[in-house]
Write a structure and sequence with these properties.
The chain has 10 helices and 9 strands. With 255 residues, the chain is an alpha/beta fold. The chain has a single domain, classed as Rossmann fold. Helix 2 packs across helix 10.
Length: 255
């Protein structure tokens, strides 16, 4: 399955009436792992909006554009073609202007640099356009930090993940160690705290809980348990909606 920011995406049938499932939350809350697993279970595309910010940051760095030059960063964002492709053996690859950048966008240095683009209103505006175009063309499980509040405020289903800060730091630490990065748990905990401060205090699209989102504390949940809970909530909401529609139809017929 392929998803492209220029709208030339595969999977045009958009199963389950092109549902848009928004998952927001801070670093280490489990949203990425769960979103991927949920997308597989439901047969929907998985869209990692954080990877889009990383891809544009990578392009800016490669082009030698200062990360505080808002207009040039916005131009790079506008001209970048970002494509998500699922591999047969599992996992997802990210392509930027035709080149696989899946590993390049995950480096520790780039992770620190993404901050500059994420806080820039002009960049966010351009990426939101791409995210909306992508979501509307394919539907999917879309995760990030402003999906249910800004990108898709009328998403079919909205979830907000959270977890105890120590749990989130531990998860992030394990993830980085698996990638071979030499970091300490204390360093990771500080980084998670810093990212929280940035995300919650950002002037444009700060991280917050959408009014109609279901909040899930993942501190003591496995990925499978979280996915099961979400699917149960989706099924419950879908059944309630169908029942309400039938009631309205009967009322209209009697009127």
């Amino acid at each position: 399955m392929t998803a492209s920011t220029d709208g030339a995406a595969a999977g045009r049938t958009r199963s389950r009436r092109r549902w848009i499932i928004a998952i927001d939350g801070p670093a280490g809350s489990g949203k990425s792992s769960t979103a991927r697993a949920l997308a597989r279970r439901l047969g929907l595309p998985y869209i990692d909006t954080g990877a889009m910010y990383r891809a544009v940051t990578l392009q800016a760095v490669r082009d030698g554009v200062p990360l505080k030059d808002a207009k040039r960063l916005a131009a790079i964002t506008r001209g970048s073609r970002i494509v998500f492709r699922d591999r047969n053996g599992g996992g997802q690859r990210v392509f930027l202007n035709g080149k696989d950048v899946s590993e390049a966008i995950r480096g520790p240095r780039l992770t620190r640099q993404v901050f500059y683009l994420a806080r820039e209103p002009l960049v966010r505006r351009e990426l939101v356009k791409k995210q909306r175009r992508l979501g509307r063309s394919t539907g999917g499980v879309i995760e990030g930090r402003d999906i249910g509040t800004v990108v898709f405020p009328r998403a079919d289903f909205k979830f907000y993940f959270d977890a105890h800060p120590r749990v989130r730091a531990r998860r992030r630490y394990k993830e980085l160690r698996l990638k071979g990065e030499k970091v300490s748990l204390r360093e990771v905990a500080r980084d998670v705290t810093r990212r929280d401060q940035t995300d919650f205090s950002r002037k444009v699209s700060p991280l917050r809980v959408a009014k109609d989102a279901v909040v899930i504390d993942t501190s003591a949940l496995t990925i499978e348990e979280t996915v099961d809970r979400i699917i149960a909530l989706i099924q419950s909401k879908s059944l309630n909606a169908r029942g309400l529609n039938r009631t309205r139809s009967r009322s209209a017929a009697r009127a």
